[in-house]
């Protein structure tokens, strides 16, 4: 580990194998996975459909570059467009890159409309990635510190506050970029009419509505995309994380009228959407649809939060339990950053964001028994943590 640039302070465990919602360490000890590689392994570990598709593709063709047609990439684009109502897709390798593509697309859109120094409205608490552009869009002073100068062109407003967006009086604004539910920001859920109101504001002003569904997409919140639950459609949709179930792939999709903005030579990527990654993503889509996993996630999430609420009712130091589908936050009134380490000792993988929010983003394939086991594990951990904090 000394040979690694120490960008992560890692938990002292290494996994050698995974199956479904379980990971196994070098000693063969089992861990129930409430993290799923940070909302990436939505189908669980080693899902046979993905494993088969990847193995087969690896023996057939892995990479050719985007100098040539890539039929699997074309098929994936058609499937994602059909499912989302978008008209075109650009594939890359991560969430940050997909957001970069989205930012470049709307800047081109603005420049075509004569806006010279366009600005994109972003939210407090937002996370959009770690590249310089997406870091500037991200609202985390700690993550930004020391990396200045960051690209300009972002205008920050409070999250969930459509009035703040409506109140903007700035001719340079060309788009609004938000997460339907903030993930890294602490599983923050905006008011029910937030996306609808943003949609209306964007329509009135000729701004583009960009949704970063890198974390909320691919069934995580109980529908394939979180925006479906708001009854609106974005102009630009950003996907990654669970799209490849662990194979690196991101996508920037654009609605009709905007998909042609990035023409030949305007943007690119060597790997993006290569046959291996595209094949994995097609297997993910087939499985999500074939096994009805978004709806299963909706049911499992309700059961998980009900059991958490029951186990943590009346406990001093509890702030809120919230979520949609299998994206759940358990907010404490005290710091929770020690919990993932303690959970590890108990054979449980959890994650903490925003300092005091236990974030649970397990595989969407969780069984009823695993839901109960995850909830009971978290209840025990949180109860002991809060009792110790109060003492
Ligand atoms: C994880 C995440 C990203 C960044 O994705 P990377 O693949 O780490 O670059 C962007 N936006 C959201 C909402 C995310 O959760």
Based on CA atoms alone, the radius of gyration comes out at: 21 Å
**Low-pLDDT segments:** none
Number of separate domains: 2
- Class computed from helices, strands and strand pairing: alpha/beta
Strand content: 15-25%
Protein described:
Helices cover 36% and strands 18% of the residues. With 391 residues, it is an alpha/beta fold. β14 (351-353) and β15 (357-360) form a beta hairpin. It starts with 14 loop residues before the first strand and ends with a helix. Bound molecules: pyridoxal-5'-phosphate. The site of pyridoxal-5'-phosphate (PLP) has 15 residues, from α4.
Layout of SSEs?
Elements: E1 15-19, E2 22-25, E3 30-33, H1 36-39, H2 48-58, H3 71-84, E4 88-92, H4 95-112, E5 119-123, H5 132-137, H6 141-144, E6 154-157, H7 162-166, E7 173-178, H8 194-205, E8 208-212, E9 236-239, E10 250-254, H9 275-290, H10 293-312, E11 318-324, E12 327-332, H11 339-345, E13 348-349, E14 351-353, E15 357-360, H12 368-390
Parallel strand pairs: 3-13, 5-6, 5-7, 7-8, 8-9
Antiparallel strand pairs: 1-2, 2-3, 4-10, 9-10, 11-12, 12-15, 14-15
Bound molecules: pyridoxal-5'-phosphate.
Pyridoxal-5'-phosphate binds near residues 127, 212 and 215.
């Amino acid at each position: 580990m000394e040979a690694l640039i120490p960008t992560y302070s890692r938990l002292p465990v290494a996994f050698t194998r995974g199956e479904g919602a379980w990971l196994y360490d070098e000693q063969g000890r089992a861990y129930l996975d409430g993290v799923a590689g940070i909302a990436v392994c939505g189908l669980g570990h080693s899902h046979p459909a993905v494993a088969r598709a990847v193995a087969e593709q690896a023996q057939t063709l892995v990479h050719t570059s985007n100098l040539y047609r890539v039929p699997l990439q074309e098929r994936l684009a058609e499937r994602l467009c059909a499912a989302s109502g978008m008209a075109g897709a650009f594939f890359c390798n991560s969430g940050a890159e997909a957001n970069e593509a989205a930012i470049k697309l709307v800047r081109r859109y603005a420049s075509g409309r004569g806006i010279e120094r366009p600005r994109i409205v972003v939210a407090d608490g937002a996370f959009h990635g770690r590249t310089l552009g997406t870091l500037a869009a991200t609202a985390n002073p700690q993550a930004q510190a020391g990396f200045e100068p960051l690209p300009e062109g972002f205008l920050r407003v409070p999250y969930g506050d459509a009035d703040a967006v409506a109140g903007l009086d700035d001719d340079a604004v060309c788009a609004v970029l938000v997460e339907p539910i903030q993930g890294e920001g602490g599983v923050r859920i905006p008011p029910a009419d937030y996306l609808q109101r943003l949609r209306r504001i964007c329509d009135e002003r000729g701004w583009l509505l960009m949704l970063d569904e890198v974390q909320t997409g691919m069934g995580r919140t109980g529908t394939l995309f979180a925006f479906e639950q708001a009854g609106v459609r974005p102009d630009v949709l950003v996907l990654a994380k669970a799209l490849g179930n662990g194979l690196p792939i991101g996508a920037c999709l654009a609605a009709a009228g905007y998909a042609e903005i990035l023409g030949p030579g305007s943007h690119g990527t060597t790997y993006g959407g290569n046959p291996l990654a595209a094949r994995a993503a097609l297997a993910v889509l087939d499985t999500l649809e074939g096994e009805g996993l978004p709806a299963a996630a909706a049911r499992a999430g309700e059961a998980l939060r009900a059991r958490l609420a029951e186990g943590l009712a009346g406990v001093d130091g509890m702030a809120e339990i919230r979520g949609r589908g299998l994206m759940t936050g358990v907010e404490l009134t005290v710091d929770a950053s020690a919990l993932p380490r303690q959970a590890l000792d108990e054979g449980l993988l959890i994650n903490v964001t925003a300092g005091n929010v236990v974030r649970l983003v397990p595989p969407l394939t969780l069984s009823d028994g695993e839901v109960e086991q995850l909830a009971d594990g978290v209840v025990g951990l949180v109860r002991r943590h809060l009792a110790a904090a109060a003492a």
